[in-house]
Design brief:
The protein is an alpha/beta fold. 40% of the residues lie in helices and 24% in strands.
Amino acid sequence: MIKILIDSASDIDSEEAKKIGINMIPMPIRFDDEEYLDGVNLSHRQFFEKLIESNELPQTSQINEFRFEEVFSELTKTGDEVIAITMSSKLSGTYNCAKKASEKFNGKVYVIDSLNVCVGERILCEYAMKLVKEGKLTAKEIVQELDKQKSKIQLLAVLDTLKYLKKGGRISSVVAFTGEMFSIKPVISIVNGEVKMVGKAIGSKKGNNLLMQLVDKCGGIDFSMPYGVGYSGLSDEYLKKYLQDSEVLWSGKTEVVPKYMIGSTIGTHAGPGAIGVAFFAQN
């Protein structure tokens, strides 16, 4: 049997993982003196409630080698193989810790650097689940296929506020102040495993339009592969608006657009009110 393990940077929490038949390993997250396990004893909703109330940004930590070893040991004890998917190695040391831990399991554990995060990492996991369910490939062949396809994943997001990027020291106070004053909505993407700003628009309507244009520019959505949209914060109001504005992308291609709440890994820096779309590009 082939088991899938995903870290909580995918925004898949422990309950959902159980429901869809995979295993989730949580990232530790600290608000002041309180430490939580993302998606286990801190839901996405609770995270945003705390983020909005807190003056300081929370601290997220990588999952250490010892913790991976424990989980791999548990998952392989009946002779099963494990495919572990982690968030981008360029955003966290989690992949390296998982890789080191996997070396102690005699080729039973495979570790994939998704080079992504959030909904982008989730859809790679969904593709892995599909391949496992079909039962046509060995674990090694599935890993090769995932490594081949992961470069096609596009994750694009429009942020509603620059406040949290400023808090995290990613941008200066002057840039943040100017951005807020002129209602500038930055558009970010995961490029080669790193978060990059790929555009900016004035106002949310233009932000939504820019997001649509970038979806086309990135090669369009391959609807035969997993895809989804996400929102951060306590309301999905902006996401509903985006889906209305971008109806041309989805109409006639799909009956349901999968919607997810973004969790702490991206939510810490994006803040509430962000919306994102993730897909495998056609071209």
